[in-house]
Amino acid sequence: PPDVELLGRSSWTLLHSITATYPVAPSPTQQSDAKTFMSLFGKLYPCWVCAEDFQDFMARNRVRTESRQAFGEWMCEAHNEVNRKLGKREFDCSRWEERWRTGWRD
Ligand code: FAD
């Protein structure tokens, strides 16, 4: 249904934007806030079959919050997991910051 797609696009925009503005060198509190946020996001995401699979992904792939780069790459990998599941093209995670923070250079 289209609302799952609109919700998804909007949510990925929020999630990647959060990693793009996450500190380069986060404090322990900032790191634990990011982990808590992702854990609650996984529980509250209002597409329940999506949320179940996302929680499962997080159980297998612990969220990496030790730096902006680590968090951004982790989010890109999480998004690629969903892309694979839906038969979409995988995104080149070496370019996540170009897409979500600094802007494309082309
Ligand atoms: P989106 O996948 O929404 O991507 C938006 C933009 O992000 C793309 O145009 C591209 O520029 C960029 N992008 C793409 N891949 C990456 C990446 N790996 N890293 C960084 N940037 C990237 N839908 C379902 O039908 N079933 C599900 O189980 C499901 N689970 C989801 C779980 C979560 C946590 C979220 C947030 C969404 C989920 N969705 C699910 C929605 C799905 O991921 C898409 O958002 C939706 O299908 C719309 O896809 P889209 O092609 O418009 O682009």
Automatic annotation (TrEMBL):
Enzyme Commission code(s) on record: 1.8.3.2
Domain (ERV/ALR sulfhydryl oxidase) ranges: 1-100
GO MF term list: flavin adenine dinucleotide binding; flavin-dependent sulfhydryl oxidase activity
GO cellular component, one term: mitochondrial intermembrane space
Gene Ontology biological-process entries: cellular response to oxidative stress; intracellular iron ion homeostasis; mitochondrial disulfide relay system
Keywords: Disulfide bond, FAD, Flavoprotein, Mitochondrion, Oxidoreductase
Main localization category: mitochondrion
Location within or outside the cell: Mitochondrion intermembrane space
Swiss-Prot/TrEMBL cofactor(s): FAD
Record's catalysed reaction(s): 2 R'C(R)SH + O2 = R'C(R)S-S(R)CR' + H2O2
Keyword Disulfide bond tagged: yes
Annotated protein name in UniProt: Sulfhydryl oxidase
